[in-house]
């Protein structure tokens, strides 16, 4: 049986994969992940946007929300910095051009 942390990591990795896509659900997931990483630079997250994702994606988002509430870490400090940088390149090219978190600088 997988541990809770394994399930949370798997959910986060699935969400990263979705966020790198080019759909409305990808946009919602990207907004969610980027708000965790750096809401000030990348924008916040409207909770009602969850209404626009498939139930399995919403469950993964809920699992990741519980993860971030418990771990008190940013995703880059958990080894996901390069993944978030890729999401910024897809969904926040202006932030990358300004040198936001895309270059790995601290929040």
What can you tell me about this protein's structure?
With about 110 residues, the protein is an all-alpha fold. The chain has one domain (about 5-100). It contains five helices and no strands. Helix 1 crosses helix 2 (about 25-40) and helix 1 (about 5-20) packs across helix 3 (about 55-70). The longest helix has 19 residues, at about 25-40. The radius of gyration is 13 Å and the shape is globular. The model is unreliable at about 100-105 (pLDDT under 50).
Write out key terms for the chains shown.
disordered C terminus, 5 helices, 107 residues, mainly alpha
Shape, per Cα inertia axes: globular
Estimated radius of gyration: 13 Å
Structural class: mainly alpha
How is the biggest beta sheet arranged? none
Strand content: under 5%
Number of strands: 0
Number of helices: 5
Compressed to H and E, one letter per element, the order equals HHHHH
Pick out the low-confidence regions: 101-107
* Helix proportion range: 55-70%
Compact description:
The chain is mainly alpha-helical. The protein is built from five helices and no strands.
Topology (elements, then pairings):
Layout: H1 4-19, H2 24-42, H3 55-71, H4 81-91, H5 93-98
Helix pairs in contact: 1-2, 1-3, 2-4
